[in-house]
Amino acid sequence: MKRNLKLVTIISLFIVAISFVSCSKNDDPADNDIFVGTYKGRITYLDGNVHKAADNGSVTVVKAGGSYYFRFSDGIPNLKGVKFKKEGDHTLVNIDFKEGVTFIRINASTLNILYTMDGKIWTANAKR
């Protein structure tokens, strides 16, 4: 009986030790979905004579597959299918000059957007 108890204790300690070792402390948030959520702050949109702005607007970030979607409040059209690359630790950046000026920088606490496409301009300076 004592032998069985000792064996069970050793196996349990081994499993606990393995579980601690297998947990990564170097898990980069840029690989996770921590960017998904709502950021609040100043947002604007310009399309010819149409100008929309909100000092207390919001942008909801949604991830679908490898792309991100930005849903703006206050009647501002959404941005869809944006792809990112990692920049340093805990940050995603999209910079593209093919379709217009595109700069989106996002981390766990801030979102900055300057996005132009087909003569339309989106901006956001928002925080969580």
Structure characterization notes:
It comes from Prevotella pallens. This is Lipoprotein. Residues 1-24 form the signal peptide. The chain is elongated, with a radius of gyration of 22 Å. The mean pLDDT is 79. With 128 residues, the protein is an alpha+beta fold. The N and C termini lie far apart (57 Å). Strands 4-3-2-1-9-8-7-6-5 form a 9-stranded antiparallel sheet, with no helix packed on it. Helices cover 16% and strands 52% of the residues. It has a domain at 37-45 and 56-127.
Topology:
Elements: H1 2-22, E1 37-47, E2 50-64, E3 67-72, E4 79-82, E5 85-86, E6 91-96, E7 102-107, E8 110-117, E9 120-127
Antiparallel strand pairs: 1-2, 1-9, 2-3, 3-4, 5-6, 6-7, 7-8, 8-9
Strand content: over 45%
What's the assembly state of these chains?
A: single chain
> Counting H and I runs of at least 4 residues, what is the number of helices?
1
Class computed from helices, strands and strand pairing: alpha+beta
Uncertain segments of ≥5 residues (pLDDT<50)? none
Q: What characteristics describe this protein?
A:
16% helix, alpha+beta, 9-stranded antiparallel sheet, 128 residues, 9 strands, elongated, 1 helix
Give the gist of this structure.
This protein is of the alpha+beta class.
